[in-house]
Amino acid sequence: MRTKNNNKRTALLNSTLALVNERGFQAAPMSEIAKNAGVSPATIYLFFKNKEDMINTLYVELKANLGINAFKEYKVGMPVKEGFELIWNNIARYRLKEPNESAFLTQCDNTPMINEKSRLEGTEYLRPLFDLWQRGQSEGIIKPLSLYLIYAYTLTPFSFLMQSQKRKKYSLNTENLKHAFEAGWDAIKV
Q: What is the per-residue pLDDT across 66-104, written as a single tens digit (0 to 9) for each?
C-alpha cells in the first residue's frame, strides 16, 4: 500500500495555486496539476477525492494563513478604529507579500467551485474581525449594516487595487494604502 507524503501534497497544492492563477479553475486539468507537481495523476487521489476537494482544501488553508497574518498584534478590546486599522493593514501587507495566494482567494470569491462548508470554515478564520465590527456597531461607531456590506466596502476594494497595481495603473504605496483604509473606514463609520 502506498503511503501519503506531505511533500507531495504540498507540491500538488502549490501546482494547483499556480495553474489556477494562470489559467482559471476550468483550464487547470488534474493531469497537468500532477505533472507540474512532479507526481503521477494517481497520487492526487491519495490526498484528495477530486479536483473540487483539492481546490476547497487549498482555499481553506489559504484562508487560515490569511487569518493568522490578519490578527498579528491584534488584541480583543482595542479601540474599534485602531483595531480595524491594524487588521486592515495586516491583510494588505499579507496580500501584497503573497500575491498568488491573494489572487487565488479573489477567484474563489467568484466561483461556485467553493462549497458552502469550505466558505463557512474560511469565514471563521476572520471571526475576530467580524466580532470587532459587531462591537463597533453596538458601540455606535460603525453603521448598523450587514457584515457582508461592511466587508464589501472595506476589504473587497483591495482586490481591485491589487489588479490595478499589477496592470501598472495604480501604486499601493504607503500613502495610497492609508487613503484606501480611510475611504473604507469613512464608508462604515457612523
A: 999 999 999 999 999 999 999 999 999 999 999 999 999
- The count of domains in the chain is 2
CATH number of the structural domain spanning residue 3: 1.10.10.60
Answer yes or no: do 76 and 130 share one domain: yes
**Model's pTM, two decimal places?**
0.91
What does each C-alpha distance from 62 to 40, 141, 152, 158, 188 come to in angstroms?
24, 31, 20, 17, 27
Q: Does residue 52 contact residue 108 with C-beta atoms inside 8 Å?
A: no
Beta bridge partners of 142: 189
Q: Which residues form the domain of 170?
A: 51-188
| Statement to judge: residues 70 and 101 lie in one domain | yes
Please answer whether residues 62 and 124 qualify as being in contact, where contact means their C-beta atoms are separated by less than 8 angstroms: no
AA identity, residue 120: L
Task: With H, G, I as helix, E, B as strand and everything else as coil, classify residue 142.
Answer: strand
For residue 100, which of 14, 174, 164, 4 has the smallest C-alpha distance?
A: 14
